[in-house]
Amino acid sequence: MTATLSAKQVPSPGAPKRAGGWALPFRERIAPYAYIAPFFLIFGVFGLVPFLATFYIALFEWNPIGDQTFTGVDNFTRMLADPRFWNATSNTIRIWLLSTIPQLAIALVLAHVLNHARLRAAVFFRMAILVPFITSVAATAIVFAQMFDRDYGLLNWLLGQVGISSIDFVQSVWGSHLMIAVMVAWRWCGYNTLLYLAALQAVPRDVYEAAAIDGAGGWRQFRHITVPALRPIIIFTIVTSTIGGLQIFTEPLLVARTTNLTCGAVRQCQTLTLFLYEQGFGRYEFGYGSAIGVALFVMIILIAAVNYLLSSRIRGEGR
User: Fold this and answer.
1) For 175-191, what is each residue's pLDDT tens digit?
2) Which of 201, 231, 207, 193 is nearest to 109 (CA)?
């Protein structure tokens, strides 16, 4: 039997050859690049160009409506000697710790419960837990500001019932940090819960049933089955929560409505992004604001490096 090529399969006399046969037409070879080109174009215009411009502007005393004077690393030197920068960094780290650790711990427990509990309308509960994530940040800030209000807030009323005097959360350092951290944790807890729950759905039920037969209780199952199964997702949520915590902006801005960018009379809850915005768009010191942005970028890179080391260690343990 002899095989014949159809008319469409017969290559043209001038078609280029490749090792395994005839090369694809030019249109087919260029098509994959055309499909992914829009992403890279949008990223280049709205991501890469502003990113590179930030590094460039950080080397200047840059007035958007005036002169631009090259100053070298003077903006970075000024930043490292500025107590306001270190205050904003300290506030950012505190708020991140207060919001991320409880948030991820609660999300992990909730995912474990939702994965095992025999609930009626389980889909409804899994959808309802995501409601805080889709709620407007402005609406969330208004509600929590009322709850933590010094004179008429629900929390201070409850404290008064047990003999504790009212706390001015907005004007105190740790009080404002706690209020913002609760807002952030409430908003993102459901999102992380669904991530953990989706990963747990891939763990065979037989593993838990075998552990139960061997006498492992709920806590031992959680420690030795649930947590190891979620290690990659846990690392992912830690990194994303850390990056989000370093970039927190809206919550502290809306909490301190009277002082806005300084977030209090003594900058008690001003974060790095608020400080950046204050210097860049409040005082029009674009060079100094860009230097703060570069510092924030370096912090995020360090977090990414830690993530890489943790991921490598987990892969090494799994072998």
Assistant:
1) 889 999 999 999 999 99
2) 193
